[in-house]
């Protein structure tokens, strides 16, 4: 008798497996060996054998980074490549846990996880399509990646995901299939193809153009793949052969002027960062020439929103500034800033700039201002580390949140220099003034809890 990986015993003369002593690991080994001969990488990764192994390790692993002992145990049943794939999925599922409600059942690649839409944002976007186009039954997701958006769409519509990479298509189909709406009997299909060459037969198109097709991250529309010509072609189909179109863009992207009369722009914030910009095209139920900043939670519910027409955008230089801080300081949220609405937001809430071109605002009254955080000023100091350190020591402040604008130093660098120690907490707000000769000011403050 001889022992083989997975404790499979073979007869010395015949070389055939003995029909006894086969445990669970042995069966997995035989199955995985069989599947390896029949499947390519993406097929094996989405097989029951692989999914079972990944799920088992996610439950039993002490850490997302598998140790040598765990890897050696895997190698008894799987090839080197399969072991690497399993270990990678365990790590990526852990990384995705804060972004996807079904992370412990999903599949990822490093790049696709970085670029994917969070489940909360995806749910919000899918809900928008349902609201704007209530008759829509089918949505095509072009450049679908690992299926972040496709997953939320599959909960409401029949969907087709399209991506150039066949491995990514297989992963997207698996992920989206987790959310199929059984009561609606929705379906999930994926196809590996060039999105710009595909004949579209659908009610709505969602597209996430690749911003890193050359390995560098771009925000310019002209650098996307598929490019501007194809995006313009899609906009021309709205109201003709499709009911609507949603284009996922970087928060800093500037759309062509020809799009503005046709679309509504939404900057979407989640987990305290502006994650993406969405250009919505439809013949009805949208507000062209309008921009909205919005914050959504992990379920896709709106926490706050602020909208203005494009002609209400105010340049920072046209907003009056106070020169000094009053009793309250306001910081606009990231989506407000990304949408270039901070000055208009401040005017709407009767605030003034503290300094020109630095997006901190002030007023004498505590204002309930959705889209911003309100702080009550405790002390106004010059940007002098010795003075700041003395004040923090006097007030026994050790738990310190540091925010800054208009200076080069990072909050981490400043914290190391201040070395705060104490029982109380506060926020240190540093307002630089790069466009004037006025000195940088430091405001020690407390958050006003009732502000959003």
Radius of gyration using CA atoms only: 27 Å
Query: Which percent range fits the helix content?
Result: 25-40%
Overall geometry comes to: globular
Number of domains: 3
What structural class do the secondary elements suggest? alpha/beta
Instruction: Please work out how many helical segments DSSP would assign.
Output: 14
Secondary structure: number of strands: 18
CATH fold node name of the largest domain:
Rossmann fold
Named CATH architecture of the largest domain: 3-Layer(aba) Sandwich
Structure notes:
The protein has 452 residues and is α/β, with parallel strands linked by helices. It has 3 domains: 2-96, no CATH class; 113-310, Vaccinia Virus protein VP39 (Rossmann fold), CATH 3.40.50.150; 316-447. The chain is 30% helix and 25% strand. It is built from 14 helices and 18 strands. The protein has helices at residues 24-38, 41-45, 48-60, 68-75, 80-96, 110-115, 119-132, 148-154, 166-177, 228-237, 334-338, 342-348, 385-394, 411-418, and strands at residues 2-4, 8-10, 138-142, 158-163, 188-192, 204-207, 244-249, 263-270, 273-282, 290-296, 302-309, 328-332, 352-355, 358-363, 372-382, 397-405, 424-431, 441-447. The strands form 3 sheets. A 9-stranded mixed beta sheet has the order 5-4-3-6-7-9-8-10-11, with helices on both faces. Strands 13-14-12-15-18-17-16 form a 7-stranded mixed beta sheet. A two-stranded antiparallel sheet has the order 1-2. α3 (48-60) packs across α5 and α7 (119-132) crosses α8 (148-154). The longest helix is centred in the first third of the chain and has 17 residues, at 80-96. The radius of gyration is 27 Å and the shape is globular.
């Amino acid at each position: 008798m001889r022992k083989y990986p997975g404790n499979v015993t073979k007869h010395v003369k015949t070389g055939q497996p003995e029909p006894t002593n086969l445990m669970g690991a042995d069966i997995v080994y035989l199955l995985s060996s069989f599947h390896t001969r029949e499947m390519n990488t993406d097929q094996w990764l989405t097989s029951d054998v692989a999914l079972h192994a990944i799920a088992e390790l996610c439950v039993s692993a002490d850490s997302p980074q598998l140790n040598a002992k765990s890897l050696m145990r895997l190698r008894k049943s799987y090839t080197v490549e399969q072991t690497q794939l399993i270990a990678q999925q365990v790590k990526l599922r852990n990384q995705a846990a804060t972004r996807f409600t079904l992370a412990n059942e999903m599949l990822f690649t490093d790049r696709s996880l970085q670029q994917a839409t969070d489940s909360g944002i995806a749910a919000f976007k899918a809900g928008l399509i349902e609201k704007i186009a209530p008759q829509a039954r089918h949505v095509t997701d072009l450049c679908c990646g690992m299926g972040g958006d496709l997953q939320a769409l599959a909960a409401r519509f029949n969907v087709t995901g399209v991506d150039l990479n066949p491995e990514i298509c297989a992963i997207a189909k698996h992920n989206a299939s987790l959310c199929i709406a059984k009561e609606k009997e929705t379906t999930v299909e994926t196809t590996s193809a060039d999105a710009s060459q595909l004949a579209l037969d659908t009610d709505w198109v969602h597209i996430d153009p690749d911003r890193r097709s050359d390995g560098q991250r771009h925000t310019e529309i002209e650098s996307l793949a598929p490019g501007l010509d194809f995006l313009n072609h899609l906009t021309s189909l709205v109201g003709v052969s499709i009911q609507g179109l949603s284009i996922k863009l970087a928060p800093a992207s500037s759309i062509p002027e020809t799009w503005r009369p046709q679309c509504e722009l939404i900057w979407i914030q989640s987990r305290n960062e502006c994650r993406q910009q969405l250009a919505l095209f439809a013949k009805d139920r949208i507000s062209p020439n309008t921009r909205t900043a919005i914050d959504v939670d992990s379920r896709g519910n709106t926490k706050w929103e602020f909208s203005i027409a494009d002609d209400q955008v105010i340049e920072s230089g046209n907003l009056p500034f106070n020169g000094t801080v009053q009793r309250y300081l306001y910081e606009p949220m990231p989506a407000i800033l990304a949408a270039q609405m901070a000055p208009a937001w401040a005017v709407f809430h009767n605030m003034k700039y503290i300094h020109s071109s630095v997006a901190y605002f002030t007023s004498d009254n505590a204002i309930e201002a959705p889209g911003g955080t309100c702080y009550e000023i405790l002390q106004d100091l010059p940007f002098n580390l010795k003075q700041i350190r003395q004040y923090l020591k006097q007030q026994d402040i050790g738990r310190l949140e540091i925010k800054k604008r208009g200076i080069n130093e990072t909050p981490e660098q400043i914290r190391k220099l201040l070395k705060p120690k104490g029982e109380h907490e506060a926020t240190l707000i540093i307002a630089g003034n790069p466009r004037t000769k006025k000195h940088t000011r430091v405001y020690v403050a407390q958050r006003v809890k009732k502000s959003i």
